[in-house]
Amino acid sequence: MRKPTILFFVALALPLMLCAEFETMWQHQAQTEFDSNFKAVTLLSQERIVCVGGSCTSGSAFPSGYLSMFDLSGNSLNSVVAERDGWSELAAVVPATNSDDFFTIGTSFAESKGMQTWIAKWDDELNLIWEGFFGGDGEDFGYSLVALDDGACLALSSVTDGLEGFHDVEMLKLSSEGDSLWAVRYGYATNDEGREIIDGGDGTYYIAGASSQYDSTRNSEIWVLHVDSDGNVLHESATSILGSGSVDYDSGFGVVRHDSGMITAVGITAAEGQERMDAGLVRLDGDLDAINSENYEIQGFYDFAYDVIAPDASDDAILCGCTRDFDNQRNCGYLLRADSNLNELWRIYVTGDYATGLLDMCRIDDNEFICVGYADTEAGTQQPLVMRIRDRFVIGDFEIGPKTGHAPLMVDLESLCRTSPAYETIQWDVNQDGVWDDTANEFQFTYDTPGTYSIDVHLSGNGIDTTFTAVETIYVFDGDSSVLFPGTGSRVNIEADDNLSLTSAFTFEAWINPYSWNNTNAMADIIFCKGSNIIAIDHALRITLRTEDGTMCIGTTEPETIVLNSWQNIAISYSSANGAIALIDGVLCDITWDNEPTGNLQNNSTQGMTLGAHTAGFNMYHGVMDEARLWNIARTAVEIQETMEEPLQGFEDGLIGYWQMNEANGSTLNDSGLFNHHGELIGTDWRQGCNFIPHDNDNETIPAKHTTGIVTIFPNPFNPSTTVSFSIDQPSLVELDIYNIKGQKVKSLLHERKNTGLHQVLWNGNDRFGIPCASGIYLVRLKAGNMIHAQRILMLK
């Protein structure tokens, strides 16, 4: 008979899991002639384990109890088939206290009484010491037990009083000689089951199972009981994970208590009307108050979690179970590790050429455990499977921040990495220069130079040797910062206020650098939203205004007046008397309206304001924004041009909101104006600002230092000529060219090497042939070394 090959497939569920290696220290698959399985396993003294389940012998269609003993190296020591009249099977095993004996519980058919709970005590040679059969005239099933300090045990079973009755949970106390001392039942209106009982460590016990009518509405929930040593209920809880309907189905199969006192129960969960069944996990505190729950879709329609263990002193949980493979419609076993927040850390599948399943586990040492179950063979028989697994993993987890800020930026770094086995040494390279900067688990580092940095970490020792990037990017800014809107779930919320109401007039200004066109519908990518008043972009400026009479007015500038991957200043000004104007980079743009707005705007005093999305959270902008300003007056084109490249004082007449975006980190956007309209940053990040160069009142450039870029183009708009002023930070070959709106080069103004400093070039408005250019928008493009800058200008005739 060919033994199926057991394979392990690893699926990583979280980016923090950097590597996982699951060493199968040994595995044993029995070669019995007939169908057999292991349903439970326990660790005995003297480094031995006992596995129990069922086995069909002599061609019988009914199983008998099956026990098998192994040492921790996987050597088979002994096996016993406990034959009884009719059907019988063992479901759980625990070591007796202060001896090498152990208890088993299961189910056995007695012809006169039907299914009975079967409890037995065995010595370490697998000799039967005593056995007993408990229950009534109905169907009774033994599932779990715990050993007590005085040699007695508590047994958990599901019992009925008649063949037509519903199941209740029963906890039964037996003496060390197997005598029944007392029994307590728990149950509600219909079927209730108890699947596992564990010692709470303080003279109390926890039971996991299913309650069918705990809240009188749901068919079944994962039911956890906390009872004292006399069986009195101290606390209880019931959880439906996936659904909220009247015929959901949830059931608990396993439970574990962590060192912290938290309780984890596992089982299955399914919602009303859904064919699929997921593995379910519920996290509770010691009083059974719910902390959280999670469902795991393993890979099939039928995903079962049968048992759970605490692998170490953390609040992690490892669960095992079975799943039905979508492709071959065959069962396979799996193991899954979840952290304290129930995030999946890793998952492995245990499968061979035929069906397999994992039904129980016991812990041998930190992150080492025994799994038992079954594996089918080529001959079509089911064979017991037992395997010892060592969990080797590296989980990179860090507290690093702030990750953005102005230079010099002090960053706190702390490692929360976890490895199995535990690493001994950590090394940090905070700027990926190949030099290890620190070896502490926690320290501070100051980035003095603006730039973009990544952080590498190396863990070593005790068999661990792993290097990885802990943080992809630390942004250190040179002066002005700005806000990045990733375009998914991102916006700035600003609460409504009477001082933030737009009525007879308003002006909105901002610097934007769009990365992509994120929305293709009529609203486009929203930059500003206040009630029904919206400013958006989609190759052009799109303006939506709702007037007092309810008229919706939509206007658009010419196509391609907004471009990607370039800083540009946008401004919209409106007055009830004079209508609206739009400026891009200080240049007046024509607006085409479907309904040109007149009169006051519709009352919006009770509506909040957003930057980067609609107030309802859609049509999100993808790009960067800087220096946003809101006025309750209509500013003229000249006023906008005069201040668009310089910071404001914050108390200018009519200024009701001024967001400089210079915080560089944090989740609050400060209003530098008089009214403290601070914004809440949602899903955003920080980036380098547009770094516009301030001007004095005479509009003369006052550069604090020479940076490469276009400083001013004056006048703009112009007729017939304008002067381009630019600055370079080092001697460079400079190219200064004029392009039309179609991207065609009109004229080359300069192509020569220039020294560091300010320079000026006059354009007379003619093309390369000396012919005067037509009115319209042109692009001035500066290339100095590897740097390229561009700015729009407008010729008016």
What do these coordinates show?
The protein has 797 residues and is mostly beta strands. Strand 8 and strand 9 (114-122) form a beta hairpin. The protein starts with 6 loop residues before the first strand and ends with a strand. Residues 1-16 and 693-705 have low confidence and may be disordered.
Sum up the overall morphology in one term: elongated
Main β-sheet, in a few words?
A: 9 strands, antiparallel
The strand order across the widest sheet is 48-44-43-42-41-49-39-53-52
What portion of residues belong to β-strands?
A: over 45%
Based on DSSP secondary structure assignment, what is the total number of beta strands?
61
Number of H- or I-type helical stretches = 1
Question: How would the blueprint of this fold be written?
Answer:
Layout: E1 7-12, E2 17-29, E3 36-44, E4 48-56, E5 63-71, E6 76-82, E7 88-95, E8 102-110, E9 114-122, E10 128-134, E11 141-147, E12 153-159, E13 168-174, E14 180-186, E15 192-199, E16 205-211, E17 221-227, E18 233-239, E19 249-257, E20 263-270, E21 278-284, E22 290-296, E23 303-309, E24 317-324, E25 331-338, E26 344-351, E27 356-365, E28 368-376, E29 382-395, E30 398-401, E31 404-406, E32 409-415, E33 418-420, E34 425-429, E35 442-447, E36 451-461, E37 464-477, E38 481-485, E39 491-494, E40 505-514, E41 525-530, E42 533-537, E43 541-546, E44 552-557, E45 568-575, E46 579-584, E47 587-589, E48 591-593, E49 609-611, E50 623-631, H1 637-643, E51 655-659, E52 668-669, E53 679-682, E54 685-688, E55 709-714, E56 722-728, E57 732-740, E58 745-754, E59 757-763, E60 776-784, E61 787-795
Parallel strand pairs: 31-37
Antiparallel strand pairs: 1-26, 2-29, 3-4, 4-5, 5-6, 7-8, 8-9, 9-10, 11-12, 12-13, 13-14, 15-16, 16-17, 17-18, 19-20, 20-21, 21-22, 23-24, 24-25, 25-26, 27-28, 28-29, 29-33, 30-32, 32-35, 34-36, 36-37, 38-50, 38-54, 39-49, 39-53, 40-45, 40-50, 41-42, 41-49, 42-43, 43-44, 44-48, 45-46, 46-47, ...
